[in-house]
Write a structure and sequence with these properties.
This protein is mainly alpha-helical and 321 residues long. It contains 15 helices and no strands. It starts with a helix and ends with a helix.
Length: 321
């Protein structure tokens, strides 16, 4: 073996050792220390996770010398230039708080119509006005309706809808991913992240604004959070949490998992209407007529008041049966 080949192999070996040491120090020391500090101080600390160290290790492994030098100088520039403390001498903070009473816009509110109705009217101006008014309020519960506006003949309205959906959904995805990673890294006895993740996803998935593949993935993440909370502290799960998950699984036609959660809800909340209606919808969807009416008889014999939606479900099932 010639001298040049030996020197090349030696350089590659040294580069590999540097990459391996960087990986081990990162995943065994840096990440755990930063995570413990974050939980102790209960504040968010920006730090790289284990996946980041693995990705950098592969880059340095397949790009010997160049990879380690790139990350070294990047870190050096960051420490010397971009991590200087902010100069707040010219910033004035006031502890005074002023509560502003804004007069309602009676002229605008008098002409407000639901967005669903505006989509079917011919006046593009009216539709644009409704879209702008929607942008001013809390739109988390209207994402499904706004998605309908994407097919509007008015290009300006469809542009409003596309911009709004893109912004809201990207913000939702980022928040959910952050909470999901935090849930994976928390201690076995902790439950705060599960509760935050469930609350963050509440009401969004049922609007069906994601692609089928992404919807299935997000429902799986929600099920993980509910399942983790069910194992750690089931008392923190309320009827709405169970019902949301059951209906989402029914929407995906994942009937075995839906039945599992329906039975868990019935076991923990046997005297709630939702524990019966979710099972009725499950048996209705799977065509299990006998157990449907058996569950319905149990509901009738209980003290629970049956709502109009449940009565309509019974009538539809009777017609199709």
């Amino acid at each position: 073996m010639q001298y040049g080949e030996r020197a090349f192999l030696l350089v590659c070996f040294i580069s590999f050792l540097v990459s391996l040491v960087y990986l081990l120090v990162g995943i065994l020391f840096v990440v755990p220390v930063a995570t413990r500090k974050e939980r102790k101080e209960k504040t968010e600390i920006l730090h790289d996770n284990r996946r980041t160290y693995f990705l950098r290790f592969f880059v340095m492994f397949f790009c010997p010398v160049v990879g380690p030098l790139f990350y070294f100088f990047s870190y050096l520039i960051y420490r010397l230039i971009f991590r200087s403390p902010a100069d707040l001498d010219d910033v004035v903070f006031s502890k005074d708080r002023v509560k502003t009473q804004v007069k309602s816009d009676e002229e605008r509110e008098r002409d407000i119509i639901p967005l669903e109705e505006a989509l079917f009217v011919n006046g593009d101006k009216d539709l644009r006005t409704v879209m702008i008014n929607t942008l001013r309020g809390d739109i988390r519960g209207s994402l499904g309706t706004i998605m309908m506006a994407l097919n509007s003949k008015d290009s300006e309205t469809s542009h409003y809808a596309a911009s709004l959906l893109s912004s809201e959904l990207n913000e939702f995805r980022a928040g959910v991913q952050k909470l999901y990673r935090a849930m994976k890294e928390e201690e076995p006895e902790e439950t705060a992240r599960e509760r935050e993740l469930i609350d963050a996803m509440d009401g969004i998935l049922r609007q069906q604004v994601f692609t089928p593949l992404e919807q299935r993935k997000l429902v799986g993440m929600l099920e993980e959070a509910v399942g983790s909370l069910y194992r750690k502290a089931p008392s923190q799960l309320n009827v709405e949490d169970y019902e949301e998950l059951c209906l989402l699984l029914l929407g995906l036609e994942d009937y075995p998992r839906a039945e599992e959660w329906c039975m868990r809800m019935a076991g923990q909340y046997p005297h709630c209407l939702a524990s019966y209606t979710c099972r009725l919808k499950l048996y209705f969807s799977t065509g299990r007529r006998e157990i449907f009416f058996q569950t319905l008889s149990e509901l009738k014999s209980s003290d629970i008041v049956i709502d109009q939606a449940t009565l309509e479900l019974v009538r539809v099932f009777a017609k199709e049966g």
